[in-house]
Design brief:
The complex is a heterodimer. Chain A is an alpha+beta fold. Chain A has a single domain, classed as 2-Layer Sandwich (GMP Synthetase, Chain A, domain 3), CATH 3.30.300. Chain A has four helices and six strands. Chain A has a four-stranded mixed sheet with strand order 3-4-5-6. Chain A is elongated. Chain A starts with a helix and ends in a 20-residue tail after the last strand. Chain B folds into three domains: 103 residues, Copper amine oxidase-like, N-terminal domain (Copper Amine Oxidase, Chain A, domain 1); 108 residues, Immunoglobulin-like (Sandwich), CATH 2.60.40; 196 residues, Aminopeptidase, CATH 3.40.630.40. Classes of the chains: A alpha+beta, B alpha+beta. At the A-B interface, helix 4 of A face strand 27 and strand 30 of B.
Chain lengths: 178, 485
C-alpha cells in the first residue's frame, strides 16, 4: 500500500513537471484589440434653445453623431431640439417632431419637411412660436453653414403658420431670428 | 409719471451694504440732507440719519419702523428690545454691544441716548445678518438716509458722462442682468431696471450730451427710466454689468460698431384716429393657448370687447371687431375687413403661453420699420410726386403692412409703455411682421397681453378687475400714440 502511494505521488510530480516544461504558453506579442470600424464619430454642435424667461435663445454645445449626408446632419439637429435642453431653457419643438425630408438647392435654400406633431403638438403663444422658429432655423444655420434660408413644410405640405402668429409662406432668413 | 429732475450733478449714492460698487458722479457735489429728489411713489421706506457726537446714528424709533418690529423699554437697565416675528434685537444705552438673536455684535461706537431717544450707529444696519430674516437695510451716506432694500434690489443714482459724440448713463443696479430696453424711440427711450429706485435722478443734464430729459416710473418688479434723446442720436448700446452691479447705456451721434441703430420714426404730430379695428386672436377650431381650462380665443374676445368699449368712450373713434363670437376667421378675411373699414389702427389681441412658467409680461409685434417695402404708393411720398402717382397703385399683399411700419412701431412703443406703467410688464417690442397684419394697410400691432402659464399673469388676466385695467392701459397707449411722436 505504501508503495502504491509512493508511486502515485511520483506520477503526480512527474505530470506537474511535464505540464510546466512541455506545455509552454504561446509566445509572441499579446493580442491587440482592433479598432471598431463601425464606430460612429462625434462632433460638437451648437444648439440654440429658448431660455426659461422667454426673451432670447441660449446656446448649448453637445456632442452629436457625425454625419456626412445632409438629411442625417439635419435630422440629428432636429432630434436634439426635440429632446430638449440639458443645461437650462425649454424644449422648442413638440414631442414627436422629426425630420421627414430635407432638400437643399444651389441657392442655399433648405426645405425642411417636418413630421405632423410639429404643427399639431404646438401649444404656445406668439412668444413661444417665435422662439421655436428661431431655435430651429438658428440651430440649423449654425451647424450647416451652406444653408442660407430655410423654408418649412409639415407632413409633406406647405406650412402657412405654426400656431397662427407668424407667416411661414416665405423662406426664413436665420439672420432675422434673434 | 414721477417728478422730473433738473439741477446739475448727481449725488454719490453710497449704499454701504448693497451698492458699494456704485461710482460717485464726477464733478458734482452731493445734495444736502433732506433733499426730496426721490420721486414720490417710487422710493423705498427710509429714515434720516443724524450725527450724535460725530457718529452717524439712526433713531431707535425709526429703526423699529424700518424693521417692522415692536419694542419694549426697560428704564432700570436702559435697555430696548426690538421684536419682529421670532427675532429680537437688544440695544443698551452707552453700550457698544448689541444682541441680535443669538449672537452679540460689538459696534465701533456705543448706542447713545440723545434728546430722549436711543440712537444706534448706522454701522448696525450693515451688520444685521441677512440670513436671519431681518429686512435688508442700506445706508445712503450721500442722502444721509437708511433705506429698506426691496427684495428685488436697488437701483441707484444714474451718472451721466459725455465723451465726444457719446453720452453714457451709468446706473447702479443690484440685479443688472435683468435690465432691458423696452422702448427704442428717441422721444421716449425706455429702460427697465429691476429693483426699487433708491437713488436720485440727476437734477440737470450736460448741455453737450444726447440725453435731454430723464423721467422715472414704477414698473412691474422694477423702475422704468424714460429718456428723451437728442434727435441727432443715431444709436444706442446697453451693457448689463452684473459683476459690478451696474447698467451702462450709451448713446451716440455717429455710427459706431456695437451700437444698435434707431429705427425710422414718424413726425411728432397728432395722428388721425377715426376708425379702429380690434381683432380678437384665434377663434372657432383654433383655440389658441390652452392652460388650466382657459382658452385664449375666449379670453381674447372678452378683452377685445373691453378694449373696444374703452376706446370708443375715450377716443370717439368708431371701433369695429373682426369677430364678435367664437368662429373660424381666415387671416385674409381679417385683413380685408380692416382695409375695407379704412382703419387708422389695428389691434390684434392675444394671450400668451410658454413651455416655462417664468415667461411673463406683454410683447407687441409690428412690421419691421428698418425695411423698405419693395413696392408702394409712390404718391404718398409727398410733395410734387403726388401728381405723378398712378390712379391705381398696385401694392403686393405682403408689403401692405410694411408701408405703415414706422407708425406701427410707434404704436407698439406707446402701448407697451402704457402696459409697463399699469404693471403688466415686462413689456417689449419686437419687429417681426405678425400674421395678423399681413395684408393690412394700416398701422397695427399684434399684442400678447400676458402669459396664461405664469401664475401672476394668469390670475390678473382671469380677474375682471385685471381685464379692465388691461383694457384701460391699452387704450391709454393708443391715445398717447394719437398725440404723435
Amino acid at each position: 500500500m505504501r508503495r502504491l502511494l509512493l508511486i502515485a505521488a511520483v506520477l503526480v510530480a512527474v505530470a506537474i513537471l511535464a505540464q510546466r516544461f512541455i506545455v509552454e504558453p504561446p509566445s509572441g506579442p499579446a493580442p491587440v484589440s482592433l479598432p471598431d470600424t463601425a464606430e460612429v464619430g462625434l462632433r460638437p454642435v451648437t444648439l440654440l434653445f429658448p431660455n426659461g424667461a422667454g426673451d432670447r435663445l441660449t446656446s448649448e454645445v453637445r456632442e452629436l453623431p457625425e454625419e456626412t449626408e445632409l438629411h442625417a446632419r439635419v435630422a440629428v439637429l432636429v432630434a436634439a431640439l426635440e429632446e430638449g435642453p440639458r443645461q437650462g431653457g425649454v424644449r422648442p419643438l413638440p414631442a414627436g417632431t422629426a425630420l421627414l425630408h430635407a432638400y437643399h438647392d444651389e441657392t442655399g435654400l433648405l426645405t425642411l419637411d417636418l413630421s405632423l406633431p410639429f404643427r399639431q403638438g404646438f401649444r404656445g403663444g406668439a412668444r413661444a412660436e417665435e422662439l421655436a422658429l428661431g431655435s430651429l432655423v438658428r440651430t440649423i444655420a449654425a451647424n450647416v453653414p451652406e444653408v442660407r434660408r430655410i423654408r418649412l413644410a409639415c407632413g409633406g405640405r406647405p406650412l402657412a403658420t405654426l400656431a397662427g402668429h407668424f407667416p411661414l409662406d416665405q423662406p426664413l432668413d436665420p439672420e432675422d431670428w434673434f | 409719471m414721477s417728478r422730473r429732475s433738473r439741477a446739475a450733478g448727481a449725488a454719490a449714492l453710497v449704499l454701504a451694504a448693497a451698492l458699494a460698487a456704485a461710482a460717485a458722479p464726477g464733478g458734482a457735489g452731493a445734495p444736502g440732507a433732506g433733499s426730496a429728489r426721490v420721486p414720490a411713489g417710487l422710493g423705498v421706506a427710509w429714515a434720516p440719519v443724524t450725527r450724535v457726537e460725530g457718529v452717524p446714528m439712526l433713531g431707535a424709533n425709526d429703526l423699529t419702523r424700518l424693521l417692522g418690529a415692536s419694542r419694549t423699554w426697560r428704564s432700570d437697565v436702559r435697555r430696548m428690545v426690538l421684536r419682529s416675528g421670532g427675532r429680537h434685537l437688544t440695544l443698551t444705552a452707552d453700550n457698544p454691544f448689541v444682541i441680535v438673536d443669538d449672537r452679540t455684535l460689538r459696534l465701533a461706537h456705543p448706542v447713545r441716548s440723545s434728546q430722549g431717544e436711543l440712537h444706534v450707529p448706522v454701522e448696525l444696519v450693515e451688520r444685521l445678518p441677512r440670513e436671519a430674516g431681518w429686512p435688508l437695510l442700506a445706508y445712503d451716506a450721500a442722502a444721509r438716509r437708511v433705506r429698506v432694500a426691496p427684495r428685488e434690489g436697488f437701483v441707484g443714482t444714474p451718472r451721466v458722462a459725455v465723451s465726444g459724440a457719446r453720452t453714457t448713463l451709468e446706473i447702479p443696479c443690484e440685479r443688472a442682468e435683468g435690465a432691458g430696453v423696452v422702448g427704442r424711440s428717441r422721444a421716449r427711450f425706455r429702460l427697465r431696471l429691476p429693483g426699487a429706485l433708491a437713488g436720485e435722478l440727476p437734477d440737470s443734464l450736460p448741455e453737450d450730451g444726447l440725453v435731454r430729459d430723464v423721467f422715472a416710473t414704477r414698473s412691474a418688479g422694477g423702475v422704468l427710466l424714460e429718456l428723451a434723446l437728442d434727435p441727432a442720436t443715431t444709436g444706442f448700446r446697453l451693457v448689463a454689468d452684473a459683476a459690478r452691479r451696474r447698467v451702462l447705456v450709451s448713446f451716440t451721434a455717429i455710427p459706431e460698431p456695437g451700437f444698435e441703430a434707431f429705427a425710422a420714426e414718424g413726425a411728432a404730430e397728432p395722428r388721425p384716429l377715426r376708425t379702429i379695428v380690434v381683432d380678437p386672436g384665434h377663434g372657432g377650431s383654433d383655440a389658441g393657448v390652452q392652460a388650466e381650462g382657459v382658452l385664449e380665443k375666449s379670453l381674447a374676445l372678452g378683452l377685445a370687447e373691453l378694449v373696444a368699449d374703452e376706446l370708443q368712450r375715450r377716443s370717439g373713434a368708431r371701433v369695429t371687431l373682426t369677430r364678435r363670437d367664437d368662429r373660424d376667421l381666415a387671416q385674409e378675411t381679417r385683413a380685408e375687413l380692416a382695409n375695407r373699414a379704412r382703419a387708422d389702427l389695428v389691434l390684434s389681441l392675444h394671450v400668451g403661453g410658454y413651455p416655462g412658467s417664468r415667461a411673463r409680461g406683454a410683447l407687441a409685434w409690428c412690421a419691421p420699420a428698418t425695411r423698405t417695402p419693395v413696392a408702394g404708393a409712390a404718391g404718398r411720398a409727398g410733395g410734387g410726386r403726388e401728381a405723378l402717382a398712378p390712379l391705381v397703385a398696385l401694392l403686393p399683399w405682403r408689403e401692405a403692412a410694411l408701408e405703415r411700419a414706422v407708425e406701427s412701431r410707434a404704436l407698439a412703443e406707446h402701448v407697451t409703455a402704457a402696459l409697463e406703467r399699469a404693471g403688466f410688464g415686462p413689456a417689449g417690442v419686437r419687429e417681426r411682421l405678425p400674421l395678423a397684419l399681413v395684408g393690412v394697410h394700416s398701422p397695427g400691432i399684434l399684442l400678447e397681453c400676458g402669459s396664461l402659464t405664469h401664475a401672476e399673469d394668469r390670475a390678473r388676466l382671469l380677474s375682471q378687475a385685471g381685464q379692465r385695467d388691461l383694457a384701460r392701459a391699452i387704450a391709454e397707449g393708443v391715445l398717447a400714440w394719437r398725440q404723435g411722436g
